[in-house]
Amino acid sequence: AADKIRLIPQDFFAELCEQIIQHLNHKIPGINTAELCQRIQTSGVDINIGDLAKVANTLSFLFSTAARNNLSTEELIATLGSGVSTLPKHAVQVIRHVWNEQGKAIAVSEDARNVATVGQFVDMKWKLGVAMSSDTCRSLKYPYVTVTLTVADPSGQITDKSFEMTIPQFKNFFRQFKEMASVLETV
């Protein structure tokens, strides 16, 4: 991860660290690595989304482990310095600053984070379509609903999950959502 961190300019690295801290503090549902990766690439840096996701996961693990062990800023920096591959100076400065400013807030909320090991729902989009024909069938006229769920996994990576349903499947899906809503109103 240290080699990939070297590629990321300091301002983008600081933004990534801030987003991770906000995610660990439950202020945002996750880190949108796709959007951040696109902005980094636009600035002229050759990095792919997989590498950026690895960096984000490494930093998330670093901050959450430091919070669990209640490390001070100096202890965290000393631990980073004793690592196998050394981080670039700008990265250590950013980590020091972010941890110094917001590290204690994570330590308080880390117990709550340990409970939630599943992803978090962020958004849902849907659209109605009609399949007119295919290679094997000339006249389908088959209606369907495409649903795209935006989910933040436990590490904070935001991903989209899409699926299609027939109209009867969608009606069942809708009925289950209504049941959930009525149960939630009683809570």
TrEMBL record:
UniProt GO MF annotations: NF-kappaB binding
Residues of the COMM domain: 120-187
The protein's name: COMM domain-containing protein 6
Stated family: Belongs to the COMM domain-containing protein 6 family.
Xref: InterPro entries: COMM, COMMD4/6/7/8
Highest taxon, organism lineage: Eukaryota
One Pfam family recorded for the sequence: COMM_domain
Function description: Scaffold protein in the commander complex that is essential for endosomal recycling of transmembrane cargos; the commander complex is composed of the CCC subcomplex and the retriever subcomplex. May modulate activity of cullin-RING E3 ubiquitin ligase (CRL) complexes. Down-regulates activation of NF-kappa-B. Inhibits TNF-induced NFKB1 activation.
Record gene name: Commd6
Biological source species: Certhia brachydactyla (short-toed tree-creeper)
